[in-house]
Amino acid sequence: MLDCQLHGLKGGWHHFTNVLLHSIATLLLFLALQQMTRAPWRSAFVAAVFAIHPLRVESVAWIAERKDVLSGVFFMLTLLAYAHYVLAPSLGRYLLVAAACAFGLMSKPMLVTLPCVLLLLDYWPLGRCSQRTVAGAVANAPERRGFRALPATSSWVPLLVEKIPLIALATTSCVVTLFVQKGAVGFTEQLPVISRINNAIVTYVVYIWQMFWPAKLAVFYPHPENRLALWQVILALVILVGVTTGTIAVRKQRPYLVVGWLWYIVMLVPVIGLVQVGWQGHADRYTYLPQIGLYIMISWVVVDFTALWYRQREVLRTCALVVITALGWRAWAQTSYWRDSETLFRHALAVTANNDVAENNLGIVFLRQGKVDEAISLLQAAVDLRPDNSPAHENLAKALLQKGRIPEALVHYRQLIKLQPDNFEVHNIVGTVLVQQGRIREGMEEWQKVLAIQPDNGNAMSNLAWVFATAPDDSLRDGVQAVKLAEQALRVSGSRIPILFRTLAAAYAENGQFSQAIQTAQRGIILANSQGNPSLATELRGQIALYQENRPLRDPSLTNGSASSHN
Q1: Which of the four pLDDT bands, split at 50, 70 and 90, describes residue 137?
Q2: DSSP calls for 19-59
Q3: pTM of the model
Q4: Exposure b/e, 43-52, CB count within 10 A at least 16 = b
Q5: Within a 13 Å sphere around the CA of 429, how many CA atoms are in the beta-carbon half?
Q6: 352-295-280 Cα angle (round to 5)
């Protein structure tokens, strides 16, 4: 809201805000890691990779994904505040941790695992779990000198109790999120549990592969559903179990490995797809915070394993520069695909398969560009790939209407109604299309269905009132009902839509209330002129002449199938 108030809809400034927040998060990550580990070079490398990795492009370049960078800032602030709290515990410092955590959860509920991350940090590098752990942590982080942590405890219980307020915040966020996302586009109910579990297992490994080889990144990756080969699932599971077992086995010698690995595993749980929201199989944006754990693992283990190298620091700094430069180049290339929607979705189609969402979105782009035939081809491909893709059916129907292929458009609108029976807008559109086809009664039935779903829907009320008032067929007209509906539609609109005055005037005339019809039409003329609609004002003047002769209005289009919506 602040961006819009300051800069309107100038996209550059909105992007600048995202970049600024991402930069702040990067700086805070460095400060938090450096504070906890006293390892400035390794902390700097982790922060640099976090800042520039191509997987970050979606979170930063996509303005609507502001929640990622905003939650990132509060996540890093929580880490920094927690390190501050551990140095000298106090109620004030704990409240600072809780506040940062709460703001992070308000930005993006994915931070529900933040209390778990803090517990991992208690193990390493803070060394708060046991004297043995402290010794191991310090031995593997020699640059931590000067960090005066709390005395270690031999039990996890005090540390868990300490996190109860944060867990309560996270639990509240979980409940609220699950409640509000009940109606989110997705197909959890349709997708078997085993398909979700298989995809989750493979996705953990996919994200690791993308970290090392960030190629063929896309704005949308279709869910594989039941298309995953058994060998892929087994191989991914072997990798996950193997790495988990290995990191646990060496936790005393190299505690950063188990901490970094569990950071990655645990933080991805809310978005790994066990509870499916949306049609994606995985998404670049979901790696924004979880992959920090992997960066920590790699940074610390490389330094440890090269400890005996000749001129180790010079070699590692050179390697770090090469890595960051390569990642920066790939991030620049990935960012270029976000310059406009057509480029973005063309790229997605080029690097993914069976991508009905990209087909649909590119079809929308072509519709806006007036390339209706190209749009129809893409949208038809989308519904062929996924017959239950509601947006694709709706957009295809719109495109077919533009080409005058009305019967085909109705087929897709009917399918859309089957998928979304309570979508009153679709019923409104179908009603209008049927009336245009001369199927007046069928169209009226659709508008009546709208009112059954949403009794105060102004479009449906006005359209029905118009037919009741002006249909040449005596059996369709009902002056009393026309007045009732038109008055209600005008009231719902706040008397701000001039064409509704035309409808109400026609209803009064059909009911024999010609003086009221004239007065209502005159009010419509004044409003139409004030809104720069002289053609409607002229039309209303002609209708006033009719009413002055005590003659009701008849709309001949309601018999020849050329009517259009009256809203």
Answers
A1: very low
A2: HHHHHHHHHHHHHHHHHHH--HHHHHHHHHHHHH-GGGHHH
A3: 0.87
A4: bbbbbbbbbb
A5: 18
A6: 25
